[in-house]
């Protein structure tokens, strides 16, 4: 094979510039042809709707389709030159953008429709940022998937037993006052009478929901987006559920959460100045006095970090498993980090016995094209919704309060 003559830098630069201009010009011609074809297709559809004669448009459609194909072929040939090296270089030939497009399902659908415009509306969070214009001779490596923001850890639901209900309200009797008169008695004497009273409590089923608008074309053309959106919407529900289970104040449509129903921490008689660790243990004792055993403590991540960093006089960590990554526990209780509890406070409780979640409708995602004017705008509404209630059977089995005593 005859060796190719060497090329200097100026010749290579000149070739690149010429190729770039030719590619830009050719693709501009493709865009114009596609636009013209779309306009003729619009006219064709209007005539069909009006039952008018379309003979003249049939010929124009045929001509424009042929011109568009030729323009695409020219663009393909230019890219093939560039991919082969252009100046006589060897190397494997790669499929051009034009080839990839004409082999795509979208192009085949366009041919079946005898033209037409491929318009994609980008709305709400489905909008994709347009990349800056790039050199057509450059190659791009695409990373699959979407780089998402991290999700907040969700732990509160995991602590509570879950039941199901078909009602709008959960009604349950809650012990009010128990007078224990049990005592040893002599034979043939009247036994002492104890007393217990109950109050009827109700927990209303709350609805947590949100939605977004998305272009139907976007969901069709990038099917992975719908699965991604589904997951993000479900995660949004779980985050708001976490907030409601802890802090819901019971007003309006809010749930009545664990912290508003918890018993305030009572540090009366606590000796000395307790540390964070001491306070959590005293809270556990207060729960135990309600005859339930505390099984978990909810802490703000900052407080748990401060506790893990505690050291003895030799500089050794007291509680942190630096190398093993053991399950976080404190005084035998599971430690749950939650951003929804105020820093400097803790919630200690018998989560597995003293409260329960009731699912009326588990988290679900629905898609509708019939909301408002969605149908005529080719839009879809994606709705995520769940319905649940929280019952707290024994508020004394949850203790909430500050981890450190107030300054004197």
From TrEMBL:
One Pfam family hit: Phage_capsid
Top-level lineage group: Bacteria
Coiled coil: none
Subcellular locations according to the entry: Virion
Coarse class of the protein's main subcellular location: virion
Region (Disordered): 81-100
Domain Phage capsid-like C-terminal: 143-401
InterPro entries given in the database record: Phage_capsid (IPR024455), Phage_capsid-like_C (IPR054612)
NCBIfam families, per database record: major_cap_HK97 (TIGR01554)
Protein name (Swiss-Prot/TrEMBL): Phage major capsid protein
Organism, as annotated: Paroceanicella profunda
């Amino acid at each position: 094979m005859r060796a190719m003559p060497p090329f200097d830098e100026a010749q290579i630069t000149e070739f690149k510039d010429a190729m770039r201009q030719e590619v830009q010009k050719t693709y501009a011609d493709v865009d114009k042809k596609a636009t013209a074809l779309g306009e003729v297709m619009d006219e064709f559809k209007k005539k069909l709707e009006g039952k008018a004669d379309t003979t003249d448009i049939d010929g124009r459609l045929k001509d424009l389709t042929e011109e568009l194909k030729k323009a695409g072929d020219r663009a393909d040939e230019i890219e093939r030159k560039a991919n082969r090296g252009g100046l006589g270089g060897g190397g494997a030939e790669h499929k051009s953008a034009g080839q990839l497009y004409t082999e795509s399902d979208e192009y085949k659908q366009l041919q079946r429709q005898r033209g037409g415009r491929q318009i994609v509306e980008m709305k709400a969070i489905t909008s994709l940022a347009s990349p800056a214009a790039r050199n057509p001779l450059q190659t791009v490596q695409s990373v699959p998937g979407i780089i998402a923001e991290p999700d907040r850890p969700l732990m509160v639901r995991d602590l509570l037993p879950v039941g199901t209900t078909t009602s709008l309200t959960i009604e349950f009797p809650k012990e009010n006052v128990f007078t224990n008169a049990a005592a040893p008695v002599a034979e043939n004497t009247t036994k002492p009478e104890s007393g217990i009273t109950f109050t009827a409590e109700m927990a209303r089923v709350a609805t947590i929901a949100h939605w977004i608008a998305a272009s139907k074309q976007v969901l069709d053309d990038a099917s992975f987006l719908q699965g991604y959106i589904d997951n993000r919407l479900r995660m949004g529900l779980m985050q708001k559920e976490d907030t409601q289970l802890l802090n819901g104040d019971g007003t309006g449509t809010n749930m009545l959460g664990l912290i508003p129903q918890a018993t305030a921490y009572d540090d009366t008689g606590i000796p000395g100045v307790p540390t964070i660790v001491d306070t959590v243990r005293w809270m556990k004792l207060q729960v135990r006095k309600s005859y339930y055993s505390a099984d978990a403590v909810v802490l703000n991540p900052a407080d748990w970090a401060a506790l893990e960093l505690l050291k003895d006089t030799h500089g050794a960590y007291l509680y942190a498993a630096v190398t093993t990554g053991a399950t976080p526990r404190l005084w035998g209780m599971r430690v749950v980090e939650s951003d929804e509890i105020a820093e400097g406070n803790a919630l200690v409780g018998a989560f597995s016995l003293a409260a329960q979640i009731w699912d009326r409708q588990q988290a679900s995602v629905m898609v509708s094209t019939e909301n408002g004017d969605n149908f005529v705008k080719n839009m879809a509404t994606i709705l995520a919704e769940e319905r649940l209630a929280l019952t707290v059977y024994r508020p004394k089995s949850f203790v909430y309060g500050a981890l450190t005593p107030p300054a004197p």
